[in-house]
Amino acid sequence: MFKKVLIANRGEIALRVIRACRELGIQTVAVYSEADRESLHVRFADDDVCIGPPPARDSYLKIPRLIAAAEITGADAIHPGYGFLAENAEFAETCAASNIAFIGPTAEQIRVMGDKAAARKAMAAVGVPIVPGTPGPIEDVDEALSFAREIGFPVIIKAAAGGGGKGMRVAEDPEDFMRAFQLARSEALSAFGSGDVYVEKYLARPRHIEFQIVGDKHGHLIHLGERDCSVQRRHQKLIEEAPSPAVGPALRERMGHDAVRGAKAIDYVGAGTIEMLLDEDGSYYFMEMNTRIQVEHGVTEMLTGIDLVKEQLRVAAGEPLSVGELPPLRGHVIEVRVNAEDPARNFQPSPGRIDVFHPPGGPGVRIDSHVYAGYTVPPYYDSLLAKLICQGRDRAEAVKRVQVALESFVLEGVTTTIPFLARVMHNAAFQAGQVDTKFLEREASLLREP
Ligand code: ADP
């Protein structure tokens, strides 16, 4: 096992990794920007290194500084968390070249799955269903348009290198398409450094269903069930739950089998997520794979009892997975993301000082958070303050638990999404489990105080 792990991240995920390391008797190194000097991950790690000024491109994204910090502190492995460099093939490569274990898949695996067009190809090759669309990136607008006509409108134009809900444009008709295609190409080039785009069918009311998978270096790869992440705003997740109200044992078996098949096709090692869209008619399609731990991993942890970060550490160190197959699912789990944002103002970030912080507790309640009373939320990074994850014996109990927890969640000083999330828990359609990716568009009144 590793002796000392450097965490190339900040916020709640840095704390999460520190906890897992401690349980395994591994020392930890925190890195931080000048804006994060007072952060809890700095306090709880065994060692810490300042890696630069606040903007991420000058600190958390500076590969040479992270490698130097690992070398100075004698870390033998780096955990990238999520975001920042977690899906950066060059970072994984540089770690390997510096004799530091990268806690994640190989650079090659990151590269294949980081290119959405290449990933589609790899999945189609082993028979995993993909959303109907162009076989690869497409440059010529007329050729793209004739593809779009073939699969039928509406279509979505996606940047091959896109992520985080960015780099996607929907076109409703041919006229719309000509404009959207050119825009998508130039946006992709400026945002991701590659103008490669492809076109796929835009499903009307799909659910976002993703499968957690874990694989080790001994050829053992399993799935740990699905998460339903259909409550989204602008293609970004706000609420995640498992099991999905739309997935029963038979569908789980089929989708899980395909997820495993897809990950095995690239001999995947580590924790990863196969994201799929589930259509109203029950068909499902591979959408993309994330080659890292995800924000919502805690949902699967509560449902299965498996510590995914410890599994990541184990398999990166060459040990076998500690689990042989999907364990019995323990009731129902729902996660809500508490962000420093104002839903009434387009989810505008609301950084600032937190004056009072009293998170909820009790049976079935888990809080993953890095904030405390007196902490100042810096304006430079994402606005996640806390993940509230609640488990119940069934979905109704889980919904109730989230509701009660949110109502007793005291967080003062910054505007948060807590009241909005509480309104969702009271929404009749949500309570009935009738949620797809268009849910919030239909229920737009949830965004405002009644
Ligand atoms: P990102 O990598 O930016 O997260 P994804 O490809 O994972 O992008 O898509 C994010 C979200 O966009 C999905 O969860 C879904 O809501 C929506 N989406 C993507 N592709 C389609 C599609 N073909 N039809 C309908 N919705 C889609």
Keywords summarizing the entry:
single chain; 450 residues; alpha+beta; Rossmann fold; Dna Ligase, domain 1; D-amino Acid Aminotransferase, Chain A, domain 1; 3 domains; eight-stranded antiparallel sheet; five-stranded parallel sheet; 15 helices; 22 strands; binds adenosine-5'-diphosphate
Strand order of the largest sheet: 13-12-9-10-11-14-21-19
Instruction: Label the CATH architecture of the largest domain.
Output: 2-Layer Sandwich
Share of residues in strands: 25-35%
**Structural class of the secondary elements?**
alpha+beta
Named once each, the bound ligands are: adenosine-5'-diphosphate
Average pLDDT value?
Answer: 97
The tally of strands reads 22
Q: Helix content range of the residues, please?
A: 25-40%
| Coarse morphology | globular
Short note summarizing the structure:
With 450 residues, this protein is an alpha+beta fold.
